[in-house]
Design goal:
5-stranded parallel sheet, globular, 4-stranded antiparallel sheet, 12 strands, alpha/beta, binds calcium ion, 8 helices, single chain, 228 residues
Length: 228
């Protein structure tokens, strides 16, 4: 069964999430502190998605996120943010989270995000070639890795999905809506800023000079494009 970790110290919210993700067909692994969450992840390396609350008794959710990402690039991470914590979304994404859900959230919204992340993790299309080469980059869809000049670049699942979209559409201007729809899914109701934040993070990883990006270029007032 597909496993989801839920880290939340407020028992009521945690139970609410657990009931709903079980109803959606997932196995729920619970944690009430950051330390506990990291232990559960060590015991259950097959957890595919982790939901992390930010305000916790022992450490904040971003620290937990960084900890997880230090050793696990594959897992999908969703941050639970409060409505007032607008900056948290950006901070969360910059520390390696794939997505965020704002409290209060509906069970349908949360499970849709989990489903979407799980689809991306296991979502290799059989029609895809295994390898895609473009300039110094080699993208391997079979083991979901990226190399630049033979050196491995570690990407999150979202970053991988965005880069795949660019490499499959070289030279084509993609609007931020195009990218949001292709990567997060058409039902995803979110701010387009999530696209910009992920592009910024990708550029740091793949560009030689992030101030003058040569691979992911900006199409002003529209979106982005692969190449000049
Ligand atoms: Ca909390």
């Amino acid at each position: 069964m597909k496993k989801v970790l839920i880290l939340e110290d407020e028992v009521n919210i945690r139970s609410f999430v657990v009931i709903n993700i079980k109803r959606a067909g997932y196995d729920a692994i619970e944690a009430g502190t950051g330390k506990e969450a990291l232990e559960r992840l060590r015991e259950n390396p097959d957890i595919g998605v982790a939901i992390l609350d930010i305000m916790l008794p022992d450490m904040d959710g971003f620290e937990v996120c960084r900890n997880i990402r230090a050793s696990n690039k594959q897992i999908g991470i969703i941050m639970l943010t409060a409505r007032t914590q607008e900056m948290d979304k950006i901070t969360g994404l910059m520390t390696g989270a794939d997505d965020y859900v704002t409290k209060p959230f509906s069970p349908a919204e949360l499970t849709a995000r989990i489903d979407a992340l799980y689809r991306r993790i296991g979502g290799d299309n059989a029609a895809d070639p295994d390898l895609l080469q473009n300039g110094p980059f080699v993208m391997n869809f079979h083991n979901r890795t990226l190399e630049k000049n033979g050196e491995r670049i570690r990407l999150t699942q979202v970053e991988f999905a965005i880069l795949k979209l660019f490499l499959q559409n070289p030279g084509r201007a993609l609007s931020r809506e195009d990218i949001l729809n292709a990567v997060w899914g058409p039902d995803y109701d979110s701010d387009l800023k999530i696209v910009d934040v992920n592009i910024r993070r990708l550029r740091i990883k793949i560009e030689d000079d992030t101030a003058n990006p040569a691979f992911i270029t900006t199409v002003w007032g529209y979106g982005y494009k692969w190449g000049a």
